[in-house]
Amino acid sequence: MIFLFFLIVVVLVALWVMGMYNGLVGSRNEVRNSWGQIDVQLKRRHDLIPNLVEAVKGYMGHERNTLEAVTKARQQAIQVTGGVEERAKAENALSQTLRSLFAVAEAYPDLKANQNFLALQEELTSTENKISFARQYYNDAVMRLNNKIQMFPSSIIATSFSFKMEKFFEVEAAEERQAPQVKF
Amino acid sequence: MWELVRANQRRAATLVVLMAALLFLLGYTLGEALAPGAGAGGLFVAFLVWIGLTLVSYYQGDSIFLALARARRIEKKDNPVLFNVVEEMSIAAGLPKPPDVYIIDEAAPNAFATGRDPQHAVVAVTAGLLETLNRDELQGVIAHELGHVANRDVLYMMMVGVMMGAIVLLADAGARMFFYGGGRRRTSSRSGGQAQLIILVVAIALMILAPLVAQLIYLAISRRREYLADASSALYTRYPEGLASALEKISRSTAKLGVATRATAPMYIVNPLGVSPRGLADLSSTHPPISERIRILRSMGAGAGLVHYDQAFRKVTGRAVGVVPFGALAAAETRPAAPPGAPDAGSRLERVRQTTDMLWRLNRYSFVPCACGTTLKFPPAYLGRQIACPHCGTVHKVQPTAA
């Protein structure tokens, strides 16, 4: 009788550990999967930028500094090899330069009437949005995983199977949220 | 987010079991009442009706629904902005793939989502919606629809709807059998006596009440799903004002959606059949009143999470119990609202022009640009070899397109 009771307790504990472990693995996979989604959109942006620079070159030749800043930021973003934090930094810098490019483009009516430019602007704006929504989802996934790792009782399972906390993909600073100020 | 989906699944299972019990009880008593001992047969019939309806709606439900709404599938080149918005929102909702996009050629602004699971999801919008809303508002509406997809509302509403359909069908069939064959049965089963009489009374009561109860359950669930999809929309876009102002614009439109019927009405973002002039929702409406939905979204303050929606819901409706399931609420983190980064995609006039051009193209109209800035559009049935510009009089040569 006591043996049976003991057996039931052991089975229940085993099931509970299994559930916790699977939950942790699920959260970790979700983080990886959502990081992949960010990666896809970042690559897409890198691919779109040369077309954009090509399209605007003829119209805004004397905005060379702005164009070069975009090209340089793109180079740096492609070359960066590092963790989430370094990539986030390089990509945020690229977002900044793109934003000032579109702000400067406002001053060129011919350019704003160009169908090709408009299509590229829509694609890039949407890619920016996709990056930020993917980042939003990624950060949520990271928070769920980190919560499970830190909170009792799942923290016991997490430490014994050495689950690692993941880093957030941060938006650089408060000013990144604001539109750039352009003075003519 | 996952907690919300899971809480939904539990609720769905409970209610479906409840309605199944109602259905089988109805089947059994109807069988017993028609002929003593035929209760098992009644059960069997109820089961068959249910399985049949479920199979049809599971595999064919979305295509039947899209055909009823006269929706047409479009590609990315037909409307890049709409496609981008759908892709953005499916990323925010964490869907495995962006849903297919369909367009309905109607002036009334409205939208719906269908498909039994996120892999087979479809979102459809009317031309009127594209013309009326700016990009932020469109994002709010698409996020609401994808909220239905991510929360598995489509499957859930389908299961509950099928249950309701089966109960109504069975009650109706039972009533007909009593009406036409009642007298004969009663004489042959006089030996049953009092027990038979009780069964008969219960059967008649169930026949009247079961469809009513089923419909009330269905409508209550439908309204609740709308609130939850609004909450999901705010969570995905982090910008409740987008959906609020979209709902405001939609409610101001006077155009009626011709392709909607009573059966398909619960699927749309706002009731396509119009609401009562008082704007009040009662037990018989599929959607909560729009004014209330707008007020909830606008009183979310600086937050965009499920918690904020739940608080705003309780404040606006004065109800003690919120709309977000408890499990999901406990797991939800607080979320700050953020203004959207995308610029406005043109004026209303531009959107109208883009949308009508898209519809012309879908109908295989040919476009000829004229040097004076006019674009000539003519139907595929046009047989002439040349066409004159109505503005400058230049005559353009035309290749006959009709095969």
Brief account:
The complex is a heterodimer of chains A (184) and B (403). Chain A has 7 helices and no strands.
Structural class of chain B: alpha+beta
Q: What's the mean pLDDT score of chain A?
A: 82
Major sheet characteristics of chain A: none
Counting DSSP H or I runs of 4 or more residues, the number of helices of chain B is 12
Strand element count of chain A: 0
Residue windows where pLDDT falls under 50 for at least 5 positions of chain A: none
Largest interface: A-B, 20 and 22 residues
Order of helices and strands of chain A: HHHHHHH
The tally of structural domains of chain A comes to 1
Query: What's the alpha carbon Rg of chain A, rounded to whole Å?
Result: 24 Å
General form of chain B: globular
For the biggest sheet of chain B, the summary is: 4 strands, mixed
β content of chain A, as a range? Answer: under 5%
Q: Tell me, what is the CATH class of chain A? A: Mainly Alpha
**Which ranges of chain B are low-confidence, i.e. pLDDT below 50, for 5 or more consecutive residues?**
none
How many DSSP-defined strands of chain B? 8
Largest sheet of chain B, order of strands side by side? 1-2-4-3
Number of helices of chain A: 7
Mean pLDDT of chain B: 80
Query: N- to C-terminal separation of chain B?
Result: 52 Å
**Global structural class of chain A:** mainly alpha
